[in-house]
Amino acid sequence: MPSYDGMPERTGEDGRMDGSRVALVVANDQYDDPGLKRLVAPSQDAAALAGVLADPAVGGFEVQVLRNAPAQDIRFAVEDFFADRKPEDLLLLHFSCHGLKNSAGELYLAVADTKPARLASTAVAADFVNRQMADSRAQRIALFLDCCYGGAFPRGMVVRAAGEAQVQDAFAKQADVGGGRGRVVITASSAMEYAFEGGQLASDASKPAPSVFTGAVVDGLTTGEADRDGDGWVGLTELVGFVTDRIHRVTPNQNPQMWTFGSQGELLIARSRVRRITPAPLAPELTQAMESPLPAARFGVVDYLRERLYDADLGQAYAAWQALRQMTDDDSRKVSEAASEALSTAELKVTPSSVDLVGTTPAELRLSGPPIALTAAASPSDPWLKLAQDGDVIRVHAEQSAPGVHEGSVALAGPAGERVVPVRLTVPGTESEPPAPPPEPEPQPEPGPAPVPEPPHAEPPHAEPPHAEPSRAEPSGAEPLLAEPTRAKRPAAQPRPVAASLTDGAFVPPWWLIAVLIAGSAFLVLVNWPGAPYSRKLWYDSNQGWYLYRTWYDPAIWGSLVALLAAVVARWAGTIALGVVAGCAVSAIEGAVLIVGGGISGDETSAWAVSAVTSIALGVALVIVLKPSVGSLWPVWPPAAGLVVAGGILLVLSAVVPHSDGVSFFEVTPLALLDPIVAVALAWPALAAVDTRTKTWLTAAVVTYSAIGILGGVPALTQGHSAADFLTGLFGNALVATGVLISLGRRLPSHP
């Protein structure tokens, strides 16, 4: 088992790393000598790398940054950085600058006052850094060199390709350091290559961005993707592998290098935000019992797996979780209910259910549940919301200077499900807020008593499964077991339920999305503009003689206008408005496929095609921003699912009911069945959504789609003289919309 800090004898029982963690970031992008080209990346490198290294949830380093400092200041800072260290300290030194060599091929790091003709006195010699590393008592040192080894000399002289500075030779003395001291040198490229910044060798000052190398390092640490073995820690070997793969996507000819000198074991540099757990294989006997035709045997498996959910071996616990999820669909109601109940007792719980911040005053969230639930990773919804996660405690604070009320959320995702905790920040104003502090202490006492009822840990799953009477109402298995305690706590913390709510305004769409939605919706209005009365047919079937003229009350123009209005107010209405736009877009796409695919487009072929393409683009933009999280599509709450299915059946009947001439819309085109298919396909993920944002915007989309569908069925009554067609369509759409709306009051399902 690898140690957490690269030194087995230095790892604590809780996995924390002993010793100080200190980083020095040296970045130089401006040079006094005109022969040294100005770089763009180093300033961005310093800011991005310092941020991720200092993040307590990632690097936890004490970071010092030097930007455009003279050579003497940097030499002093480097010597001071390595001096007076303890053996258990972890030191990280990062250089982002030009790399030059003298006539003997020795490597120098160019800084602000470097003169290429006087490297020994004006640049930082690699040998100087080498000596400081060798003399340091710290046993764990990592050196990152993001340098261009082909930096230009003044007056048109260039570095010779055959004599590039050799990093391995420059730091070869590190191999002689005894005592198991681990020194690792990582460079952005090999000795015969340039290090690219921003994907280009020649930098462009108008486009500041981190270099390809440092950008990949920051991305790997920030996202946790560099943790390739999923153990919760990022080692240097893993990091270099990730960075190399990422760089090759941009510049295939750049190859980062890593040299280790006297290193023992993997040097773990940062924590990973993402914890990937691989389920352990179940015992063959257990698998056979799960497939037994005897319900009693399968019921016994549930009892065994319930205990495994609390196993400290996360692989075993995750395997038990997956097996129980599978058994919730068991043919035996007793077995399925027992499996659902077992899962509910092991779900992730968060206390409190909502957070109110005032100014910079921090707050804490506490996680409870079995070990597998506590692996959930926290992520903020907005940049101003800062998190520091330490085991089952998440410290929340805000960096928001604008006065007023700001809303965000903390998302917790792990194998045992997801939770979203609303966060409300109040920043007092400068002039109008002096009277505001008195009211603020009144909400303050409420968080005080809140910790009293908070459960310190998950309750042991001793409750027996046979709860025949409470489950007779057919909610989704174990949901009532958690729904009732949650309702009891809500009034003390915040009246808004944990379940999705159409009043959820925590999410603020980015401006680029608003611009795309407004432009696309306005274009749809233009394309679907009715024009002069009876000038164009919305669709026309020559076989049956059916047709419909474009008017001001057809669903195409109404859907476009509603989408435009929702796009305009989306910045304030948030998730709901985005869902309305999504419902209009889905309606336009379904209509285009129906009319064009059914061969009844008549005068409107190009208009339908353009509407479909534009609506697809709007849908893609919405999905990119909203990132829907649906999870398993079963189980869902049976009453809501029953209404949606019943509505879909009525919509099918609406398509096959004949009009006064004895012809049904299905006979005009079989694609008439698209309406019920799309309605149910859009509603079902809304029932199965696993987070508040997804449930809210999908619900708004379904209601909007159903409303447009009802409007589209009016001609069946006014022109087709078919009350049956209109009524089945009306009640069908109404049932689908009602099904998703009533599911808002239910606790969101948790899926691994």
From TrEMBL:
Pfam families: Peptidase_C14. The keyword Transmembrane helix applies. Residues 456-472 have a biased composition (Basic and acidic residues). The chain crosses the membrane at residues 511-532, 552-570, 577-600, 606-626, 633-656, 668-690, 697-717, 723-744. GO terms for biological process: proteolysis. InterPro entries: Caspase-like_dom_sf, Caspase-related_regulators, EF_Hand_1_Ca_BS, Pept_C14_caspase. The keyword Cytoplasm does not apply. Keywords: Membrane, Transmembrane, Transmembrane helix. It comes from the Bacteria. Residues 434-455 have a biased composition (Pro residues). Residues 21-258 form the Peptidase C14 caspase domain. This is Caspase-like protein.
